[in-house]
Design brief:
Blueprint (H helix, E strand, L loop, with lengths): L4 H6 L2 E2 L8 E2 L4 H10 L5 H11 L3 H26 L6 H16 L20 H15 L6 E3 L8 E3 L12 H20 L1
Helix pairs in contact: 2-3, 4-5, 5-6
Length: about 190
């Protein structure tokens, strides 16, 4: 939906701007493993092997999931600031800087071109490092100017606007877009009648 793994990651909470409807769509280690496979961050066989080995240490698994939740919470205000063309909040920016540094410490730099840091897949916590590296790519790459936030009331999902005109407004034309069009139609017919 978001058009980039990092945007799909922050979008794992639906209706984040509407406290009455907020819903965390990915909960637990198995769900995160399935999500990582669906977004291409992990191969299916690697995710299964990782779950088998990591499930034996529940404290380590819980810490890895908590770290994912922390990264997601850091990215929301940073991306909101990007979309709103504001300076990122200092606390979250510093936290993101620390996450990026840790990711670099825990990754490898293969002797190949183009130069690209690679995270491992030996631990569940490596998923956070992979997302941190992808965040760096997103926030420093050509797609930066195409990051948008859905205009649907309460939605808050982010997406890459790949439309030719650069005027995409909703995460999904069929979902938030339809709601907006129906609301405008209802408003017009109420005023006219």
């Amino acid at each position: 939906m978001g058009g980039h793994p990092v945007l799909d990651f922050v979008n794992t909470v639906a209706w984040r701007l509407d406290p009455a409807r907020t819903a965390d769509r990915v909960q637990g280690a198995e769900a995160w493993a399935r999500w990582a496979v669906a977004t291409g961050l992990l191969a299916a066989d690697r995710a299964e092997a990782l779950l088998r080995t990591e499930m034996t240490d529940s404290a380590r698994m819980e810490a890895a999931i908590a770290a994912l939740m922390d990264l997601r919470a850091i990215l929301w205000p940073v991306l909101d600031a990007l979309v709103d063309e504001e300076e990122p909040p200092a606390r979250e920016w510093e936290a993101l800087r620390r996450v990026l540094l840790l990711a670099r410490e825990r990754t490898t730099l293969p002797p190949a071109f183009p130069l690209r840091w690679q995270s491992g897949t030996d631990r569940f916590d490596d998923l956070r490092h992979a997302l941190a590296l992808r965040t760096e790519d997103l926030l420093s790459g050509d797609a930066l100017g195409r990051v948008r936030r859905c205009e649907g009331p309460g939605c808050g999902w982010f997406f890459l606007d790949r439309s030719r005109s650069g005027t995409r407004r909703w995460c999904s034309s069929q979902d938030c877009g339809n709601r907006d069009r129906a609301k405008r139609h209802y408003s017009r017919t109420r005023q006219g009648g």
